[in-house]
Amino acid sequence: FCRWRFTFYLYIFTYGVRFLKKTPWLWNTRQCWNGYPYQPLMPDLHYYYIVELSFYWSLMFSQFIDIKRKDFGIMFTHHIVTVTLITFSYVTNLTRVGTLTLCLHDAADVVLEAAKMANYCKCQKLSDLLFLTFAIVFIVSRLGIYPLWILNTTLFELYEALGNFPALWVFNVLLVILQILHCFWSYLIVKAAYKAISKGKVAKDDRSDIESSSDEEETVPRSKTLHSTITTNGTSGSNGTNGYLTGGTCSEEH
Q1: Model confidence, pTM
Q2: Whole-angstrom Cα distance, residue 221 to residue 6?
Q3: Which ranges does the record mark as transmembrane (predicted)?
């Protein structure tokens, strides 16, 4: 699964960068609101949205066939907010700022999936390096660039350009909820990164024990439970979570 997700994230992030390089709103976010709501829906933008929406729908459904985690509710909330944001921005033609948000979020996921693959290949040093890189990219993009770039234009520049209207508040409430989730995951990532640096490897996250199938865990041979996995959005390992956390060297994927 991680190879498929890595391929998808790499492709869609590359596609998003190539698309946005040709747009004026990448360099000037005020261009997101010029001519709104009568902005043409370009074929490339339409394709970008449909592919991203399909992927996040798949994550939401796959969570129900995954092993249930303690952060199931948080991850489900994240998927609901994401799908709602993509759909709402498409329907209300807030797609320009939507493309910026999608591309920004895909950047960290590419690195995380690469770290997972290195972990499964037993390349511990590479896995740890990629995880620390992921932690930096995640925090910079979601606690720095996201509020200063995305929230700034939707909360202030949009209001200055078009005034008050109902869709503005719905859109911004969803974006702020997403930012709250970013803060929560950043705390967990910093905690895991600190363990990685202090112990010389990515340590187990004891918050993410499996809620279900506890009896089955006790019967698993110890050789299969010595290590923990790096996990990502919508997936899980024996000691991982459905969120953005990492574990130790290499393990069996559930």
Answers
A1: 0.77
A2: 30
A3: 46-65, 129-149, 169-190
Task: Identify the three-state secondary structure at position 252.
Answer: coil
Residue with tokens 């109902």: 166
pLDDT of 195 higher than 90: no
Number of residues in the chain:
254
Place of tokens 């040093």: 125
CA distance linking residue 243 with residue 235, whole number of Å = 8
Rounded to whole angstroms, how far apart are CA atoms 54 and 12? 12
Largest interatomic CA distance in the chain:
63
Over the range 160-175, which residues count as b (16 or more CB within 10 Å of their CB) and which as e? eeeeeeebbeebeebb
Task: State the DSSP string of 15-32.
Answer: HHHHHHTT-GGGT-GGGG
Residues 164-191, mean pLDDT to the nearest whole number: 93
Residues with Cβ within 8 Å of residue 123, at least 6 apart in sequence: none
Whole-angstrom distance, CA of residue 68 vs CA of residue 209: 10
Instruction: Report d(CA 58, CA 72) in Å as an integer.
Output: 15
The C-alpha atoms of residue 234 and residue 108 are separated, in whole angstroms, by 15
Confirm if 44 and 23 have CB atoms less than 8 A apart.
Answer: no
Q: What would the pLDDT profile of 29-68 be if each residue is shown by its tens digit?
A: 999 999 999 999 999 999 999 999 999 999 888 887 766 7
